[in-house]
């Protein structure tokens, strides 16, 4: 499965296009170029999908000469791709360009871009993790644009709630309120807070969640009236076990549902199919269809890292106290298409799982250079 990593292509059946997904293979745009949208996410707006991610189309090298030093690529910027069908992706270019601000200098770190549309200001708002090569700055950067395809104007960086912020995600609830979740306190605690009305800053209140669990790469989503936070452990670029958490509100109590991955071998499931989640997308207008998105990192050449897209299900459970009302399942497929969402798997459990202990750090450094 490690060799199997995400290609989409279209076949025609009786005049109807059917999207086939091949998790882990090379993913190319409409110009047959490798897609550069790592660590990113997808925004759906005005009947189109916009995929934002890190452009890593440059030489991969290690930041230090020490053993275990993290691989990196000098900052190029954030790329955007557009699609009407999640299959054919048009390259819209680098929409937040490196080198245009000291935070975005080549020797810096710009990761995990996420974008929301703000109905009040009529602006697209991008948040990124910005840092120095030693991962000591630990800030968020914010950029805005009136167009989904940019260019985005960089507005500066800060520490949300005055706290360290590394891997992050954004979430917009049905009422239009925006939230941020970010790894903090040396990646040992997840902080969750509400965004301001214009989505460019945070409200004063925040909650400390997943305390002491050392989780990163958060992806928050809502389905069937419930809130979920999908995360990874902190093991450098090496894949590890995913863990999903459930709550009744974004600022509420988060409880573990365990590892959502099923299918393949035990090693596949224990390593999130040799990938790290980056986003979860409930497909607009398609109830019950949820897309799991992940990166399959290649530390020898980060620009050739591949994508793993798989179907995700939120499944109801019997009303048994104190068990959870729902389960989350991500099932491996060597290849699949949208009709596979109808092949609903069985739920895995009826009890809340005990949260996983923090995984051992990968070498001297954490995931992308953060000291463990």
Automatic annotation (TrEMBL):
Keywords: Glycosidase, Hydrolase
Regions crossing the membrane: none
Pfam families for the chain: Glyco_hydro_43
GO annotation terms (biological process): carbohydrate metabolic process
UniProt key word Protein biosynthesis: no
One MF annotation (Gene Ontology) recorded for this entry: hydrolase activity, hydrolyzing O-glycosyl compounds
Region (Disordered): 351-372
Xref: Gene3D superfamilies: Glycosyl hydrolase domain, family 43
PANTHER family, per the entry: GLYCOSYL HYDROLASE 43 FAMILY MEMBER, GLYCOSYL HYDROLASE FAMILY PROTEIN 43
Family named by the database record: Belongs to the glycosyl hydrolase 43 family.
Name recorded for this polypeptide: Glycosyl hydrolase family 43 protein
Organism: Elliptochloris bilobata
